[in-house]
Structure to design on (702 residues):
């Protein structure tokens, strides 16, 4: 409990953009063969620092096989919600779920990020018994606590009951229980986010645990059995109010990115693959007249490639699907960054008109067939994956691993963990920074990145920028 | 705290109803301003509403809702006392018990700092309900009970002994008046601040001005209770 709100809490996205830039990037490391414990790497991103672009601290966990994926802060700008009236928490703890183990680590980043340490470990049994869910994934700091989405229900393979969202206390980290009161037709889960003053939540769908834990199941994909719905919820009533089917061929609707400015009642979601033509797509969803709507607003075509350049999984298709596996929206809601993990491209769309995204910039790096090296000459395995944007919108960071077993199917040659950064132009344009290149220790892959003081997929706001 | 201190001076001067009455009214207005300026009672919601709708009218609509909720909470807490006070011979016990309740609630707030999770279940469109729930949960309405009882007593001293019916309507009238004066002060203070932030100071002021009043708030409750209790014991 503090006397003043944390200085990294901002009332509006505009104030968040004007705040001091990040000095550290936190990145999750996973051991894909579970031979080593997963870890959290702290990277120096302060320009001019002697240890710039280097790992300055590592927190290694005491267990193996957690499979780190996404993570988040215990508290963020949403604490300034005038409704919650509880602004006196610190952005201090990183909440890191093990997607495979269902164990949750709480990491204390104070007094200094280079001294980050384990504060608490929540064992899987507590998650199972208090929520009936398993395989925790996305973390968001919100009204009344920390919200955690899960990909599995109960039982050994996580198919006993649907997955959903549970809530944790943001100071004691006690698991409080399930969030949903009425889930409607929702049976799969992946990402979620919200518009706090407008009081709605949006959730997406990836797959059930048997469809991803041992690798992608091609028969299920071709039979359109992966997730393809968006669910819209009344946030305070905890009810599913509308479900939109994007069409069964639009397989795997992943990251949900609402506009940061709460006045804007729209957002985006990325679809990994269209099973009719291997295209990836960006969808815009919006609320109008009390109803939610969604339409496909950008497509990215597959790239033909000779069979010998393709992994066995793709050889029958003779092409590389773009595989949009992550998207991220800049704080001013102007640029949407789109990771094409298959073709090895980071795209930047101008989404000033949210229903007419315009390609504004692009860099190629990695890729199944292209295998573009970094401009500094070093190899970049796999393709751009988890992407995070600095609050001021000038720096775009990304890593290259998707998920242990899927990496092996799409990139059988191996995916050594790498993190790069590109500089974004004020009015668009994207260029990889030659001086920022982080190689992680042997045997580790890198997943999500969180930036000190908040980033573009962490903070949600209760006041508009205008 | 401010109202606690004011009430303290009331106690010193209690023997003569006239000047004491003035101090009590002042305490009432001061408590209203105190509640209104506290962000936890909702002025940032009015700022948010104004900005979200890009209209000062939305800001004022929000203020009305906040005022209505606070008024309802105050009345709900004061009315039972208005009825109880008819039992004239129990008056002193009622006043002492009320003081103890206020002190007890202050101590509870001091120990149990968590914010009631129920508040997160109220949709942002239900501002009046939110304001009502917050005023009850934080003991804002409870803080007025000793002031109200003091005013009733001072009033009764002036009026002499009345018939039960007349006494009750006088007490009810006083409850209404106390609530209205308090809420008028509360919404003037909070409303003025909301307007200043909306129009001139900017959103940066929201996080800069937001102090953790939890301990001070709980202490205020305890102080108000102690002052009232002290007076009641002394005047018995």
């Amino acid at each position: 409990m503090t006397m003043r709100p944390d200085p990294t809490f901002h009332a509006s996205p505009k104030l968040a953009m004007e705040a001091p830039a990040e000095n550290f990037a936190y990145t999750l490391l996973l051991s894909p063969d579970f031979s080593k414990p997963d870890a959290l790497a702290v990277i120096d991103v302060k320009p001019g620092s002697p240890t710039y672009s280097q790992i300055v601290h590592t927190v290694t966990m005491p267990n193996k096989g957690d499979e780190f994926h996404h993570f988040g802060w215990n508290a963020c700008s949403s604490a300034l919600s005038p409704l919650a009236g509880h602004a006196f928490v610190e952005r201090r703890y990183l909440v890191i779920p093990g997607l495979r183990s269902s164990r949750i680590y709480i990491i204390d980043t104070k007094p200094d990020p280079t001294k980050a340490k384990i504060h608490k470990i929540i064992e899987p049994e507590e998650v199972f018994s208090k929520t009936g869910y398993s395989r925790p994934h996305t973390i968001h700091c919100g009204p009344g606590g920390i919200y955690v989405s899960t990909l599995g229900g109960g039982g050994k393979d996580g198919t006993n009951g649907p997955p959903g969202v549970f809530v944790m206390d943001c100071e004691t980290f006690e698991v409080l229980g399930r969030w949903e009161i009425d889930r409607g037709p929702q049976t799969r889960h992946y990402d979620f986010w919200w518009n706090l003053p407008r009081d709605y939540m949006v959730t997406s769908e990836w797959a059930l645990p048997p469809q991803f834990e041992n690798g992608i199941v091609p028969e299920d994909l071709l039979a359109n059995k992966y997730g393809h719905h968006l669910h819209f919820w009344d946030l305070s009533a905890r009810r599913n109010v509308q479900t939109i089917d994007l069409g069964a061929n639009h397989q795997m609707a992943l990251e949900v990115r609402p506009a940061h400015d709460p006045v804007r009642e729209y957002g985006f979601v990325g679809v990994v693959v269209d099973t009719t033509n291997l295209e990836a797509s960006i969808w815009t969803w919006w609320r109008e007249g009390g109803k939610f709507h969604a339409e496909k607003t950008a497509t990215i075509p597959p790239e033909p490639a000779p069979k010998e350049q393709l992994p066995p999984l793709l050889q029958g298709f003779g092409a590389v699907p773009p595989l949009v596996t992550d998207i991220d929206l800049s704080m001013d809601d102007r640029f949407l960054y789109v990771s094409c993990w298959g073709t090895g491209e980071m795209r930047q769309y101008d989404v000033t008109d949210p229903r007419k995204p315009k390609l504004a910039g692009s860099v190629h790096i990695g890729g199944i067939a292209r295998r573009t090296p970094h401009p500094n000459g070093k190899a970049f395995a796999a393709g751009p994956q988890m992407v995070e944007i600095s609050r001021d919108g000038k720096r775009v960071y990304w890593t290259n691993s998707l998920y242990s077993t899927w990496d092996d199917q799409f990139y059988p040659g191996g995916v050594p963990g790498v993190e790069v950064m590109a500089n974004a132009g004020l009015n668009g344009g994207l260029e990889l920074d030659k001086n920022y290149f982080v190689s992680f220790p042997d045997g580790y892959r890198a997943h999500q990145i969180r930036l000190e003081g908040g980033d573009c997929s962490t903070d949600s706001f209760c006041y508009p920028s205008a | 705290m401010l109202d606690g201190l004011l009430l303290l001076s009331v106690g010193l001067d209690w023997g003569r109803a006239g000047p004491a009455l003035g101090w009590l009214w002042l305490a009432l207005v001061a408590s209203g301003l105190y509640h209104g300026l506290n962000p936890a009672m909702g002025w940032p919601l009015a700022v948010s509403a104004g900005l979200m709708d890009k209209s000062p009218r939305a800001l004022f609509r929000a203020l009305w809702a906040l005022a209505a909720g606070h008024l309802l909470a105050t009345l709900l807490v004061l009315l039972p006392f208005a009825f109880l006070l008819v039992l004239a011979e129990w008056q002193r016990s009622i006043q002492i018990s009320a003081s103890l309740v206020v002190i007890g609630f202050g101590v509870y707030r001091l120990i149990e700092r968590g914010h009631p999770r129920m508040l997160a279940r109220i949709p942002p469109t239900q501002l009046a309900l939110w304001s009502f729930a917050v005023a009850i949960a934080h003991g804002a309405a409870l803080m007025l009970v000793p002031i109200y009882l003091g005013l009733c007593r001072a009033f009764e001293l002036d009026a002499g002994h009345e018939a039960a019916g007349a006494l009750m309507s006088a007490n009810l009238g006083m409850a209404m008046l106390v609530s209205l004066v308090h809420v008028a002060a509360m919404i003037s203070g909070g409303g003025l601040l909301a307007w200043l932030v909306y129009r001139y100071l900017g959103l940066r002021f929201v996080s800069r001005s937001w102090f953790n009043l939890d301990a001070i708030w709980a202490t205020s409750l305890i102080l108000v209770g102690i002052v009232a209790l002290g007076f009641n014991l002394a005047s018995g």
Observations:
- DSSP finds ten helices and no strands in chain B.
